[in-house]
């Protein structure tokens, strides 16, 4: 049973590390501030959850598990709150999101969001 817990723990640790590294790459590769903050925030929370769950499986004492759970609760509340505050401050400062260019030959939208009538 101990080897099963060790394998599961290492699987969680490696998966959590993968998500954290992927979030870091997203911060470098995504096109604008809002995409970067979303990618980093979501993957960081998931990576922290998986990493702390893997550490909890390795813990010998229940107090370590309680402390790891409290650390995750702190990260779960403060991470998205900080990302939201940064995104809101950027929007209020006038930073516009980068929008995708319309697809050539695709449906064109009017200002209200309705489809424009076709010309055929």
Strand content: under 5%
Number of structurally distinct domains: 1
Taking the alpha carbons of the first and last residues, their distance comes to: 70 Å
Q: What string, H for helix and E for strand, traces the elements in order? A: HHH
Low-confidence stretches: none
Q: What's the overall average pLDDT, rounded?
A: 87
Number of strands: 0
Radius of gyration (Å) = 21 Å
Summing up helix and strand content along with how strands pair, one would put the structural category as mainly alpha
- Global morphology: elongated
The level of helicity is over 70%
Describe this structure in words.
By secondary structure, the chain is mainly α. The chain has one domain (2-92). Helices cover 71% and strands 0% of the residues. The chain has helices at 2-29, 33-58, 62-92.
Question: Can you give keywords for this protein?
Answer:
single chain, elongated, 120 residues, mainly alpha, 3 helices
List the helices and strands and how they pair.
Blueprint: H1 2-29, H2 33-58, H3 62-92
Helix pairs in contact: 1-2, 2-3
Give a nutshell description of this structure.
The protein has helices at 2-29, 33-58, 62-92. By secondary structure, the protein is mainly alpha-helical. The chain has one domain.
């Amino acid at each position: 049973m101990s080897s099963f817990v060790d394998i599961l723990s290492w699987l969680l640790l490696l998966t959590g590390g993968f998500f954290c590294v992927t979030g870091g790459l997203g911060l470098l590769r995504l096109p604008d501030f809002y995409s970067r903050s979303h990618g980093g925030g979501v993957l960081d929370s998931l990576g922290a959850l998986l990493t702390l769950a893997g550490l909890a499986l390795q813990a010998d004492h229940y107090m370590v598990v309680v402390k790891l759970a409290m650390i995750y609760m702190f990260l779960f509340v403060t991470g998205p709150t900080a990302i939201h505050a940064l995104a809101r401050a950027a929007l209020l400062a006038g930073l516009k999101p980068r929008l995708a260019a319309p697809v050539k030959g695709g449906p064109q939208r009017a200002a209200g969001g309705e489809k424009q009538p076709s010309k055929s």
